[in-house]
């Protein structure tokens, strides 16, 4: 039996098993088994039913400070949007599966180069390897932001299918890692503590998941409200990626104003028309907001700041040391101190800081060498 067939068998069993106190242990085991089989599919050397194979045309040299992946079904307008945004030619056609490899392009936003990746259209069953789905979703895992491009005439049905495919590949959209810790120990059995009520998981289900992973001695601490068995499995697996996502509802030129008002009620969505170039400015603004980048301007000695070429850093890696290293590795070693103006500085006249100082968007920095 192939890995895909085993996954299907477990999913069928879970679907027909009613959740109650008597079945919670069994369901916990099934969820853990399912996660382990999906992990095998992530590794092309495992799982005989994976399909796919090598990733020819899917390995892309990374450029820019962040990458945005376009994911969607065939013929929803990904390539048209990509071509117009970046000026890069991505084959456009009304027929399905025109884009067969990853097509990279670059879009400059507020002085920051953003890499845009047009991924081939995925099909239902992609996380099981169908339609080269494994390679497509594997590239999506490495992106800083995902655009799920949907046809406005059937957005919700397609949205659910694509979310399911990405979830099956360990991608968690618009979520943060659950506040659950599992710490292994040498002896003492299983100790479970929780600081919030366990509303969607019970002790039996927790023990079943731990048993499937052969964790007989460990401390489990749950601080996540409404935690589920899936959250626990995600923490134990440790290979999940948490990526922000924007739902791009394309082809709004084909619907009425009343229908457009309804589309705006879908969370994290931006309705656009890539063909007529409608509402693209809002899409770019939302992209910049979700990428959460930090622009830092350099100030040479006895000269005004250079606002034309910002040094762009990622939030969480935006210290003065990160700033120095992004220009040249030797600068941090030669630095005596830095003077910073902007949101992170305590004074408007500038603040003298060290390497560990965290910079904010649009700060100005002057480096003083030893």
TrEMBL record:
Keyword GTP-binding: yes
Domain TGS: 292-369
Keyword Ubl conjugation part of the UniProt annotation: no
Highest taxon of the lineage: Eukaryota
Residue intervals of the OBG-type G domain: 66-292
GO biological process: one example: positive regulation of cellular response to amino acid starvation
Gene Ontology molecular function: GTP binding; GTPase activity
Matches recorded under InterPro entries: Beta-grasp_dom_sf, DRG, G_OBG, GTP-bd, GTP-binding_2, GTP1-OBG_CS, P-loop_NTPase, Small_GTP-bd
Keywords: GTP-binding, Nucleotide-binding
Record-linked NCBIfam families: small_GTP
UniProt-recorded name of the protein: Developmentally regulated GTP binding protein 1
């Amino acid at each position: 039996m192939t890995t895909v067939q085993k996954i299907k068998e477990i999913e069928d069993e879970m679907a027909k098993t009613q959740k109650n106190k008597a079945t919670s242990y069994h369901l916990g085991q099934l969820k853990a088994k399912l996660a382990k089989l999906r992990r095998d599919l992530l590794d092309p050397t495992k799982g005989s039913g994976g399909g796919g194979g090598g990733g020819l045309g899917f390995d892309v040299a990374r450029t820019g400070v962040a990458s945005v992946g376009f994911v969607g079904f065939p013929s929803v307008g990904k390539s048209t949007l990509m071509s117009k945004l970046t000026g890069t030619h991505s084959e456009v056609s009304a027929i399905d599966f025109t884009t067969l490899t990853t097509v990279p392009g670059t879009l400059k936003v507020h002085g920051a180069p953003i890499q845009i990746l047009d991924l081939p259209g995925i099909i239902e069953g992609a996380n099981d390897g169908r339609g080269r789905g494994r390679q497509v979703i594997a590239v999506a895992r490495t992106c800083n932001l995902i655009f799920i491009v949907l046809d406005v005439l059937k957005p919700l049905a397609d949205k659910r299918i694509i979310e399911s495919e990405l979830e099956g590949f360990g991608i968690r959209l618009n979520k943060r890692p659950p506040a659950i810790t599992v710490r292994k120990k040498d002896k003492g059995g299983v100790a479970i503590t929780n600081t919030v009520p366990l509303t969607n998981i019970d002790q039996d289900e927790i023990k079943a998941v731990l048993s499937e992973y052969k964790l007989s001695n460990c401390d489990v601490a749950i601080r996540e409200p409404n935690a589920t068995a899936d959250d626990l499995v995600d923490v134990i697996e440790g290979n999940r990626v948490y990526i922000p996502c924007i739902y791009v509802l394309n082809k709004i030129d084909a619907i009425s104003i009343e229908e457009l008002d309804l589309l705006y009620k879908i969370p994290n969505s931006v309705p656009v028309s890539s063909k007529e170039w409608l509402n693209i400015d809002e899409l770019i603004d939302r992209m910049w907001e979700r990428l959460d980048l930090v622009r830092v301007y350099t100030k040479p000695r006895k000269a005004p700041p250079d606002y034309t070429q910002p040094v762009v850093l990622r939030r969480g890696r935006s210290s003065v040391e990160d700033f120095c290293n992004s220009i040249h590795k030797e600068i941090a070693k030669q630095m005596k101190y830095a003077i910073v103006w902007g949101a992170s500085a305590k004074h408007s006249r500038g603040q003298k800081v060290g390497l560990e100082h965290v910079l904010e968007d649009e700060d100005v920095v002057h480096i003083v060498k030893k």
